[in-house]
Design a protein that fits this description.
The chain has 92 residues and is mostly beta strands. The chain is 5% helix and 13% strand. It has 1 helix and 2 strands.
């Protein structure tokens, strides 16, 4: 995953604390990455200093607001195939 405004890309792998070659069920990498990577759940403090100074940052984010009920669409027991996928707009 590239990082914004960085020519280094994702960062560097520091170590491989768990490795399938050493008997682990999966490889688990420890990485050093930029903070400007992944989803932007910390907006508006992410891009406006005045909001960041007011405490709108990822440290104060209530993770409860990122969770909710899910209502799957489609026939019960069916697989969501590419032909069934459609882009939905959000009235958020």
């Amino acid at each position: 995953m590239p990082s914004w405004d960085s020519e280094d890309g994702v960062g560097e792998i520091i170590s491989l604390p768990r490795s399938m070659k050493n008997g682990s069920l999966a490889n688990n990498s420890k990485m050093k990455i930029e903070t400007h990577i992944g989803t932007h759940v910390d907006a508006p403090g992410h891009v406006f200093d005045r909001y960041f100074d007011l405490g709108f940052d990822v440290d104060t984010l209530d993770l409860y607001v990122l969770n909710g009920e899910l209502e799957p669409k489609g026939d019960r027991g069916s697989t969501i195939a590419p032909k069934k996928r459609e882009r939905r707009s959000c009235d958020c």
